[in-house]
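Figure 2 data, in text form.
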Amino acid sequence: MNGFIEAVIILALVGAILIYVFYSKSTSNSSMSAKERKERFQRIQELEGMANTVDKLIFSMNESDNLNAKKKRAETILQVLNRVSDYPEYQEVFESFDELYKQVKSMLLVAPVIEHLKKAHKYKFKKKDSSEKNALLDALYEIEQNNITDDDFMRLGSHNEETGEII
């Protein structure tokens, strides 16, 4: 009889623990007041609007051939991302926020270098050796002045996987 009572008590305790766990999980979202849920929902909607803006700016930046336009859009994206990071829910909407921020920052740094390399390639095609060398030196100057690393180029995917050359 003693074993039976102990078994009933253990079952009752296990049942109580299961009910508590289930109840606490089902009410965890309701621990926020209606006002808090509404404010959170509004913040997430604002973040989604910012995400759409960032997507449009990235598309526009990638489609642009003009260096100044690319730089301006990259700076605007960074401004939006800085505002986004003020929201506590930003990582729910921007899942890869840190990588996106680094990629746009790298784009801002690397864009002038790529422009100089394009000029050098054009001068090489025209057999203008001194102009080609000057364009290459300008590219090296940008790299040195802005502390551009290999990671910045890799982040943009602007290199050949086999040779490592900048495309």
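Caption note: The radius of gyration is 28 Å.
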